[in-house]
Amino acid sequence: MKVSPRAVLLALAAPLLAIVVAFVITSLVLVVAGDPVGAVWTELLRQPSPRLIAKIVNGAVVYYLAAVALAIGFRMNLFNIGAEGQYRVAVFAAAVFGAQGYLPGWANVVATTLVAMLVGAGWAAIAGYLKIKRGVSEVISSIMLNAIATSVVAFLLTKARDTSAGAGSNVTNTKPLPQDSWVPGLQLVSGTTTKVYGLIVLALVVGLLYWLVLGRTRFGFDLRAAGQSESAAIASGVDAHRMIMSTMILSGAIAGLIGLPLLFGQDHAYGTNFQPGIGFAGIGIALLGRNHPIGMALAALLWSYLDQQGNGLQINAGVSSELVYIIQGVIVLAVVIAYELVRRANVRLEQAKVARELAARSTPPTSTSMQGASA
């Protein structure tokens, strides 16, 4: 397959433009606030230590799963904003099930993973059902389901809390997983004892399957076709309602995996200190990566890099680490605008190319060629 250099440049232009815009706007915010611009960027752009690199990769693993979950819906023009709620109910259910130790070792890991996927898919199916049967926008229903999921999990956590934990802690946790169900980390970064989550393998498999299923199968073609035009999809024999439900279920199943690297590789239980906001971060990462498996991986690394590097802003630059959220938020807004600008530029270039080709075909023959033809 021939790769067009212009297509590659245009694909890179939007995310790079978004990052530049975020850099400029954040600098202006710092100037207005009277904060040291140079010190902030020196801190954010300094070379991370080996320990920090491992933590960046760990964060990227979780963010990548969130981005893939969102991207599945985006490919069909479905906005599954409910990944936050889906991953919360899924990881809570997985933590409660896995802690029972019904199966030994890796069998328990596999069974717990399936439980997380089923619960995440079931929670997402509610939004799919409401859209198909009642015409409710998936954006509205999934946002409401996020709020419901947070409250439901908080309530159930009080019922399923680990009563054997010592008193005096403000953190409420479920019963921890058996130690033979902990997934060991991988020593991928030299110079540090901090290991990368073992479930980075799961993230790689999910990315590969995402690329294969959505880009190389009939199901993926039908999914994208139904998203482009529901009427055209129906005319070609695709059941649009079935594709909506299938897409939401698949997106929710992947969202159910988001919290598993933390559950199996770090916390080994679900509690009130479990990392929030991952599902919402996946929206920006999927947009920045243009729903492409490699693009989302790079975007997830950037997101995690900003998270980890921002931890030292308060100490080394005298600026609140909340500044990172401003940068990430500006990137999300800028990337939407940048993609539209790049799209319009691409349309103009295509129009100019077509105009040149038409002009070349309609150019009248020269007098010399006419004399040669008459001779």
Q: Based on helices, strands and strand pairing, what is the structural class?
A: mainly alpha
CATH architecture of the domain at 50-294: Orthogonal Bundle
Stretches where pLDDT falls below 50 for ≥5 residues? none
Largest sheet, described in full?
none
Separation, N- and C-terminal Cα atoms: 45 Å
Helicity range = over 70%
Put simply, the count of helices is 16
Portion in strands: under 5%
List SSEs in N-to-C order: HHHHHHHHHHHHHHHH
CATH class type of the domain at 50-294: Mainly Alpha
CATH fold title of the domain at 50-294: ABC transporter involved in vitamin B12 uptake, BtuC
Mean model confidence by pLDDT? 89
Number of strands: 0
Over the alpha carbons, how many angstroms does the gyration radius reach? 25 Å
Shape: globular
Question: How would you describe this protein?
Answer:
- The chain is mainly alpha-helical.
- The chain has a domain at 50-294: ABC transporter involved in vitamin B12 uptake, BtuC.
- It is built from 16 helices and no strands.
- The protein has helices at 5-33, 37-45, 50-74, 83-99, 105-134, 138-160, 200-216, 218-228, 230-235, 240-255, 260-267, 278-288, 293-309, 313-316, 323-361, 367-374.
- The longest helix is centred in the C-terminal third of the chain and has 39 residues, at 323-361.
- The two termini are 45 Å apart.
